[in-house]
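Appendix B, example 12.
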Amino acid sequence: QVQLVESGGALVQAGDSLKVSCAASGRTFTRYAMAWYRQAPEKEREFVAIISGSGGLKNYSDSVKGRFTISRDNAKNTVYLQMNSLKPEDTAVYYCAAGARLGSVDYWGKGTRVTVSS
């Protein structure tokens, strides 16, 4: 069982930067690929970024590529999402996810809210 707790969501202005974090429980953190998803009001949840267990593989959605960076600190059981040049359309609840296989989701966090004002 893996528990995920996101933090760092905030109200920011367009163009600002923000870093959100996800702390995972358990001693098997490196076995899991970690991902960020987001869900905007009245929209479906969408993929944002993913990182492999070792951190060597990363992938991003086209909408955030070049602006967002996913990283992980396996010593701290934590995954991060650095968001730069934020836009109002980035407003959403950001969810952390863990999957035993790249692209699968076995566990979800409860989310952290990011609001970008214009």
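Residues 62 and 107 are 24 Å apart (CA to CA). The chain has a mean pLDDT of 96.
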